[in-house]
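Input/output pair, single chain:
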Amino acid sequence: MTHDPGAARPRPSHTPPEFASALAQPRHAAAAPITPPATSPAPVQIPTAAVPRGGRTASIWIIGVLVLILIGLVGYFLNALGPGASLIGMLLALVPLVGVLFAVRIVDRWEPEPRGLLVLAIAWGAIAAVGIALGVDLLLSMVFGPATGAREVLQTVVQAPVVEEFAKGLGVFLIFATARRAFDGPVDGIVYGALVGAGFAFTENIQYFAVSFIQGGAAETSMTFFLRGILSPFAHVMFTSVTGFVLGLAARRGVSTGQAIGPWLVGLAGAIALHAFWNGSAVFGDFFALYLTLQVPLFIGFVLGIVALRREESRLTRRRLGDYAAAGWFTPQEVDMLATSAGRKAALAWARTLRGDRSALMRSFITDATALAATRQRAITGRDPHAAAEEQDLLARAATTRAAMFAP
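Output:
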């Protein structure tokens, strides 16, 4: 396992040559014209079965693989660390995990990803990626014996970043390949990559905290928790977000799974380089000095990059919903409301003043409208053959929800 007590990463540049910038929204094809609605659409429930669900859920075989690896991991931890130390490690590891999940939820709030895929991302990092890393460690130990001296340094600075980022990045790529319709752009990629990294860090922290408790009791455990749980809860999160970010750029371009292998390798190389730099700072340099002078600024850059991407999502929502407003499905005022965080907050506050508190209906209206904007973007780029069916379903649901909100 890697020795990485903290983290930060720069936001990589992966600007496709045909676009003005990494944030530009490409237009690969002209979308079909939007049919104007009939006057005052009647509230009507559309069966969800009419909309194809393929491309938004994970394959069942991935879940089966995770279950098998989980059984092996539980047996390994209980045998190597014992139930008591494992339980203490797990409880301590939950603390940074909760903080990371809260941060990722903020990033994903604008256009939330399917809950099942979010759970899958965490599970892949916590189970499959850790299993792969442990398997490689055990195999190399059996072949070459315990790592000592120069080989231990090589294991920390080279082996761990390569093996662990490959294992985590594989999970992000599988989500891209099997749930393509839920992987729309860089923010989605960052969310999936961050959750895979969070899951990996959770299980890895269990081991670190348990070993510290066994070897040094409360004092050493406290120090390890400070280094890994306080200083570096976002380490693996940011490393793997690089892979997800680049895959998200590829998704925006509408590439196929095969065509995405190249961008995935580019993102993987960036994640490995950041991981190796982080581990190397702990081995070769003054970790705390490098943490303050390099890692903290890189973390700030990472946050600013996410803010920029979130603003681009807001602009995209306004443009695409503007298409529907021009056809009569939304009013210009509704577009302004749906395309800004302030407008959404004001809308929810207003809905709470309606009879019976209709904020739940307003949340549904906001969610469906945002999904509609993303669906229209997929139709324009020509990467979703089911976009038309989903578009009609979302339009009907938005009209139904609007009618319910204004019902006496």
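Residues 316-405 form one domain. Residues 5-22, 42-50 have pLDDT under 50 and may be disordered.
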